[in-house]
Recover the amino acids of this structure.
């Protein structure tokens, strides 16, 4: 009878020690499902293209203007080839990629449009592209700044275009 009391007392002590109501602090070595969060955002596959200029018949708006182009005919209506003896002209593949274009009105300042970041939400397929257009020294001639790049065709996508941190345009691609 004494062995049963000792065994019961040992089991009760073990259960009390294992099931302590005192919360235990996480020291970073334990795994907890409560602390796991999936990161759905990733970098967008952007490939800059060069060798083009905005045609004279196109007059961009007062700020950065964005286009999303899905065919050669539309592309050719907006841009001409800027061929020199040394450069190569990048040809967009409209079968698998979309062309993203950013331009602004002509300026006498050595302004270059730059892509700061491009991210895509892998769950919703929505994307964000952040551009900046820093002005440099004043020139005696004007230029019409242009940035061109391609992104993969991934079905219906809503792309938000930002100038710095300000939302400038939102374009949704067809499926």
């Amino acid at each position: 009878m004494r062995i049963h009391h000792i065994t019961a007392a040992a089991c009760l002590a073990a259960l009390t020690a294992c099931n302590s109501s005192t919360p235990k602090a996480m020291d970073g070595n334990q795994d907890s499902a409560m602390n796991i969060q999936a990161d759905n955002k990733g970098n967008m596959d952007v490939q800059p293209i060069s060798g083009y200029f905005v045609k004279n018949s196109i007059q961009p708006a007062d700020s950065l203007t964005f286009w999303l182009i899905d065919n050669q005919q539309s592309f050719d209506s907006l841009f001409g080839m800027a061929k020199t003896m040394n450069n190569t002209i990048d040809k967009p593949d409209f079968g698998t990629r979309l062309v993203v274009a950013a331009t602004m009105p002509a300026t006498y300042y050595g302004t270059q449009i730059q892509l700061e970041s491009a991210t895509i939400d892998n769950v919703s397929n929505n994307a964000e592209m952040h551009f900046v257009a820093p002005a440099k020294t004043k020139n005696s001639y004007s230029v019409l700044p242009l940035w061109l790049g391609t992104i993969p065709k991934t079905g219906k996508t809503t792309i938000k275009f930002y100038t710095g941190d300000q939302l400038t345009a939102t374009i949704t691609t067809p499926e």
